[in-house]
């Protein structure tokens, strides 16, 4: 199944991955005060609460949405959410509509983030323990969701028998490396990714692996980069989980809901077919057959799938898709090898030139000769390069590999010369390398290109050596808005 949603900038996506205290996420949905809530009796259904302190461990907290009809006399399904940057309210906002429509509790950890596994497992345990103490839960319908590294946390949590997770909704990433699916994977899986997400290929490959093991799965793409899916896709994911819960006996079948979802999915397939996307329509008809068999008659979807499978357009599309994936995989692998070579002084210059060549070759442009899919592919490759520039450079700074950090961040500024974030990180690298003049030049460039977080700059330990310089003080005054 495939749904198109709204697009956001990749720049924000990469900051989310890092969990940086930098920039502001777009927020929407009904909200309440973020004051700590100590007891369930003070929690108002139908309102997003940004910070509920865990009773057994007040250092842990989570954002919460209880459906407006919540009552403890009924057992309710629950979704545990893990963001890459400890922004618990963001997934709660994205899933609020689905939670209200289908009667799910949604909670998002304010502690879990990309990083060591121990703190993430502690956050999951704290949420699980607290929600089981506060609320009436349907233990047959416990779900986990996450974005980027949080998606991998959700999969790891789902493997733990204690939590009895029935399904995972993973945004922008799949399983932890070395902990992939197997014949014994005890949960179903629904993946989402933007069409410019550097992890889209991973999720497409994962779907094939899940099919091999006979694990029920879905995959939705939307317009955008590496990010949480929009609320429409989150709702589709919950609908799918509801459908599979009815199919597997985790809840009583609701004939009205089955028909409603079936007609919606069938209309999506018909729209794809009408638009000329016969391959997409074929995949959707196939998914409908798999998802609804055992719940209702699927003869109309089966007839359409059989008809399209024989079409030349679908056969050609399959071959093109396989070729596209192989080519994209080869490019991404080569980018990874070139970044690894930067650690070798004798290979460094050649590696940087090779990365720049790939980035320029895959520049995202408005060339009318390129197809939308070619432009999305180019964006995925460039976004992958940008992601590696950030993650590798940040790791080198932490390990005090300052020359290597400078090289990587200089490379980043060449790839994204109009963005302020690469220049800010380059300033950090120059500063720690003792190159004060270059650090100030980079910091000035960051401010000129839009950096305006004075509080972050003043508390940044990597920039302490610059703080007494007059040029630094001029930047402070500029950001303060004083002469």
Give the helices and strands, then pairings.
Elements: H1 10-18, E1 48-53, E2 61-65, E3 76-82, H2 89-102, E4 105-109, H3 117-134, E5 137-147, H4 149-159, E6 165-171, E7 188-194, H5 200-212, E8 217-222, H6 231-247, H7 255-274, H8 278-292, H9 299-309, H10 312-341, H11 348-361, H12 372-398, H13 402-415, H14 420-432, H15 436-448, H16 454-459, H17 470-480
Parallel strand pairs: 3-4, 3-5, 5-6, 6-7, 7-8
Antiparallel strand pairs: 1-2, 2-4
Helix pairs in contact: 2-6, 7-8, 8-9, 10-11, 10-12, 11-12, 11-13, 12-13, 12-14, 13-14, 14-15, 15-17
Proportion of helical residues? 40-55%
CATH superfamily of the largest domain: Alpha/Beta hydrolase fold, catalytic domain
CATH class category of the largest domain: Alpha Beta
Biggest beta sheet attributes: 8 strands, mixed
Give the C-alpha Rg: 24 Å
Structural class: alpha/beta
Can you characterise this structure?
This protein has an 8-stranded mixed beta sheet, with helices on both faces. With 483 residues, it is of the alpha/beta class. The protein has helices at 10-18, 89-102, 117-134, 149-159, 200-212, 231-247, 255-274, 278-292, 299-309, 312-341, 348-361, 372-398, 402-415, 420-432, 436-448, 454-459, 470-480; strands spanning 48-53, 61-65, 76-82, 105-109, 137-147, 165-171, 188-194, 217-222. It is built from 17 helices and 8 strands. 53% of the residues lie in helices and 11% in strands. 44% of the residues are buried.
């Amino acid at each position: 199944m495939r749904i198109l949603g709204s697009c956001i900038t990749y720049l924000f996506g990469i900051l989310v991955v890092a969990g940086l205290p930098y920039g502001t996420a777009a927020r929407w949905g009904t909200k309440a005060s973020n004051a700590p809530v100590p007891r369930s009796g003070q929690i108002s259904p139908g309102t997003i609460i940004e910070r509920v302190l865990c009773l057994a461990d007040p250092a842990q907290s989570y954002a919460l949405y209880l459906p407006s009809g919540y009552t403890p006399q009924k057992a309710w399904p629950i979704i545990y959410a893990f963001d890459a940057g400890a922004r618990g309210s963001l997934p709660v906002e994205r899933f609020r509509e689905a939670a209200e429509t289908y009667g799910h509790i949604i909670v998002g950890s304010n502690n879990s983030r990309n990083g060591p596994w121990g703190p993430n497992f502690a956050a999951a345990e704290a949420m699980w323990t607290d929600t089981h103490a506060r609320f009436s839960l349907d233990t047959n319908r416990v779900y986990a969701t996450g974005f980027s590294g949080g998606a991998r946390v959700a999969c790891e949590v789902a493997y733990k028998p204690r939590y009895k997770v029935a399904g995972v909704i993973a945004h922008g990433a799949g399983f932890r490396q070395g902990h992939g699916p197997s014949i014994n994977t005890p949960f179903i899986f629904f993946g989402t990714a933007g069409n410019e997400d550097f992890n889209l290929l991973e999720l497409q490959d994962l779907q094939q692996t899940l099919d091999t093991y006979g694990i029920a799965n879905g995959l939705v793409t939307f317009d955008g980069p590496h990010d949480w899916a929009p609320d429409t896709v989150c709702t589709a994911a919950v609908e799918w989980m509801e459908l599979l819960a009815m199919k597997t006996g985790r809840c009583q079948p609701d004939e009205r809901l089955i028909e409603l979802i079936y007609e919606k999915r069938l209309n999506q397939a018909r729209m794809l077919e009408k638009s000329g996307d016969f391959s997409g329509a074929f995949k959707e008809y196939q998914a409908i057959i798999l998802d609804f068999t055992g719940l209702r008659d699927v003869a109309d979807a089966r007839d359409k799938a059989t008809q399209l499978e024989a079409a030349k357009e679908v056969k050609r599309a399959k071959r093109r898709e396989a070729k596209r994936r192989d080519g994209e995989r080869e490019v991404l692998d080569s980018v990874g090898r070139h970044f690894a070579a930067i650690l070798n002084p004798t290979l460094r210059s050649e590696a940087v030139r090779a990365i720049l060549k790939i980035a320029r070759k895959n520049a995202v442009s408005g060339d009318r000769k390129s197809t939308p899919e070619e432009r999305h592919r180019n964006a995925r490759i460039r976004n992958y390069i940008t992601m590696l520039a950030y993650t590798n450079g940040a790791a080198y700074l932490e390990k005090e590999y300052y020359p290597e950090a400078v090289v990587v961040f200089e490379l980043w500024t060449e790839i994204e010369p109009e963005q302020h974030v690469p220049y800010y990180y380059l300033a950090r690298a120059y500063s720690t390398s003792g190159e004060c003049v270059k650090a100030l030049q980079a910091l000035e460039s960051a401010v000129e290109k839009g950096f305006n977080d004075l509080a972050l700059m003043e508390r940044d330990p990597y920039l302490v050596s610059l703080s007494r310089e007059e040029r630094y003080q001029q930047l402070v005054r500029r950001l303060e808005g004083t002469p």
